[in-house]
Amino acid sequence: MNRFPRHFAPGATRGFALQSGKEPHLQNLKIEGVNDIIAVASGKGGVGKSTTAVNLAVSIAKKCQLKIGLLDADVYGPSIPIMMKLHGKPEVSADKKMIPIENYGVKCMSMGSLVAESEALVWRGPMVMKALEQMTRGVDWGILDILVVDMPPGTGDAQISISQRLQLSGALIVSTPQDVALMDARRGVKMFSKVNVPILGIMENMSYFKCPNCSEPYYIFGKGGAQKTADELGMKFLGEIPLEVGIRSGSDEGVPIVISNPDSFVSQAYANLAKNVVGTLEDLAKKQYFRPEITL
Questions:
Q1: Where in or outside the cell (predicted)?
Q2: CA-CA distance, 154 to 150, in Å (whole number)?
Q3: pLDDT at 121
Q4: What are phi and psi of 264, to 5 degrees?
Q5: What is the pTM of this model?
Q6: What is the predicted pLDDT for the residue at 24?
Q7: From CA 221, how far away is CA 97, in angstroms rounded?
Q8: Are 226 and 197 in contact (CB under 8 A)?
Q9: pLDDT score at 289
Q10: Which residues of the chain have a pLDDT value below 70?
């Protein structure tokens, strides 16, 4: 049986059922035409969160045949335009909304597509949130099954505000195997729990390096840390991605490895991650979670 037989019904409430008497308040948090919004997050930078978001979004679009958008919410360090090979600025529709730039079957929006590559944004919190508001509700996304949000690293004001202002269906936590990264991953889990966002699971990036000569795996950053952390927290472990030269070169060249080498072991690992994420979203929808009232 095909696990992903159809697009999610447009306009359906997924992930959460709205509480009685709270519909108008919560409905304002939704983005028109978008069924599910998921955050790809990490407790710290440098764990490959953006690379994961890109390859996950493209894998869901290609392998699960769903309509996908990708929002680069890292305003200070936008990397999606390079990783997705996006050129030019978004056009503006007749109703004054930006039209996302599409590549590899994914609709993308990033601050990196709106400002010069060399420009440094020296903005305080209110300006950042205004920009993110424009890149979410000020965009004509069309009909999307899932909008993947590449979150800023960490657990500060921007991350909390995004979680409160968008009706997130869930968050995927990205970590590497070493203890210091997993400690920050736990902080990310706690942050999302405090703002009532379900954790879809934890995935481990840079799990090991496979020697190109002998195929022996080398666990450079430790072994099994994310799996152990997921077990301790009672959460799903959604998969592991090895440390691979092709992933890095694909990111630099703007051709994700799931496009440049779709039959590789790494691409299959991303495909499995995509299926696990979509399957978890479907499970959450069936369980009819309720989101409490949110104070903005």
A1: Mitochondrion
A2: 12
A3: 60
A4: -75, 165
A5: 0.84
A6: 36
A7: 44
A8: no
A9: 47
A10: 1-29, 116-125, 155-156, 288-296
pLDDT of the residue at 135: 87
3-state secondary structure the chain: CCCCCCCCCCCCCCCEECCCCCHHHHHCCCCCCEEEEEEEECCCCCCCHHHHHHHHHHHHHHHCCCCEEEEECCCCCCCHHHHCCCCCCCEECCCCCEECEEECCEEEEEHHHCCCCCCCCCCCHHHHHHHHHHHHCCECCCCEEEEEEECCCCCCHHHHHHHHHCCCCEEEEEECCCHHHHHHHHHHHHHHHHCCCCEEEEEEEEEEEECCCCCCEECCCCCCHHHHHHHHHCCCEEEEEEECHHHHHHHHHCCCHHHHCCCCHHHHHHHHHHHHHHHHHHHHHHHCEECCCCCC
Instruction: State the architecture of 33-285 in CATH terms.
Output: 3-Layer(aba) Sandwich (3.40)
Joined together, the tokens standing for residue 139 give 């965009």
Domain chopping of the chain, boundaries: 33-285
**Among 174, 89, 78, 88, residue whose Cα is nearest residue 132:** 78
Please state, in angstroms and rounded to a whole number, the distance separating the CA atoms of residues 23 and 193: 22
